[in-house]
From TrEMBL:
It comes from the Bacteria. InterPro entries: Epimerase_deHydtase (IPR001509), NAD(P)-bd_dom_sf (IPR036291). PANTHER family: NUCLEOSIDE-DIPHOSPHATE-SUGAR EPIMERASE, PUTATIVE-RELATED. This is UDP-glucose 4-epimerase. Residues 3-198 form the NAD-dependent epimerase/dehydratase domain. The lineage of its organism: Bacteria, Pseudomonadati, Pseudomonadota, Alphaproteobacteria, Rhodobacterales.
Length: 296
């Protein structure tokens, strides 16, 4: 597929794009920062500028595309990962503006140019736990896509708004538009750097609902979305299968989630950030675990 990928130089994108390239896709990275990786064409673009976005979404992706003499090829899909990635990087209103307007502009361009598949990054923060003022627990466990999304912070608010915008564009167009509620992205080198501390002090993972997603498995998730047609509008939790701490599921519940409703039985080390829907509807099968990286 010919893919327009935004934010490819970011933490998630720089692992997802190589995964897509390995599977034969052609990828243009639309970003403020280029991704230095073989086979990637970079186009510098301010995604909050609707004119730049519309132009970039209908442009050549390399000099070789001039050769056939048949005009500009159409992108098959847009994967939108670009964003201000969390709070406390920019003023709250700027975080909100950038994230909301960039998403609107891309969905609008896709609708008007006939790009019939859009995959966009939503967030674990929509569930209102990650950046809550003070400690809060989920309404129930495991946290699935039906869990309430009423966050307090500007970043998560922008993601909730983006989901509503995407749902409306899907209703207008009938396209496939899939939102990924991505949990805490972990790069391979971070297992040795960060996880020993998480094993020592599991409370460090409370705001991430004790979950994570390996950046390489996130690439797989995007590829599964590209390969799956006809779902219309859907949102999917994206996480690895296991907890990000050394405690068992029952031990974490006893220590951190006393009194929280448990809606079904869970495995000994099963994540609280349910990924059942992605497995069932997309064939998602996470392959990487911190346990493998740290030799058990």
């Amino acid at each position: 597929m010919r893919i327009l990928f935004t934010g490819g130089a970011g933490k998630a994108g720089r692992h997802a794009i190589p995964y897509l390239l390995e599977r034969g896709h052609r990828v243009t990275n639309l970003d403020l920062v280029p991704l230095d990786h073989p086979g990637v064409y970079n186009l510098i673009c301010d995604l909050t500028d609707a004119g730049q976005v519309f132009n970039a979404a209908h442009a050549y992706a390399g000099f070789d595309e001039l050769e056939p003499g048949t005009g500009v090829p159409r992108y098959d899909a847009i994967v939108h990962f670009a964003a201000v990635p969390r709070i406390l990087l920019k003023p709250d209103n700027e975080t909100y503006r950038v994230n909301v307007m960039s998403t609107y502009n891309l969905l609008d361009a896709a609708a008007k140019l006939g790009i019939r598949k859009v995959i966009f990054a939503s967030s674990e923060t929509t569930y209102g736990v990650c950046f809550h003022d003070g400690e809060v627990t989920p309404a129930y466990l495991p946290v699935d896509e039906e869990h309430p999304t009423v966050p307090q912070d500007s970043y998560a608010m922008s993601k909730v708004v983006n989901e509503a915008t995407a749902k409306s564009f899907q209703a207008r167009t009938g396209f496939d538009i899939y939102g990924l509620r991505i949990n805490n992205v972990i790069e391979p080198h971070e297992y040795a750097q960060a996880f020993p501390a998480y094993l020592e002090d599991p409370s460090l993972r409370r705001r991430n609902i004790f979950a994570y997603i390996d950046a390489r498995d996130l690439g797989q998730m995007v590829d599964r979305c590209l390969a799956t047609d006809g779902l219309g509008y859907e949102v999917f939790n994206v996480s690895n299968d296991d907890l990000s701490v050394g405690l068992s599921n029952a031990e974490v519940r006893a220590r951190f989630y006393e009194g929280v409703e448990i809606r079904r039985e869970m495995g000994e080390h099963e994540t609280f950030y349910a990924n059942d829907k992605a497995k069932r509807m997309l064939g998602f099968a996470p392959a990487h675990s911190w346990r493998d990286a740290l030799d058990g």
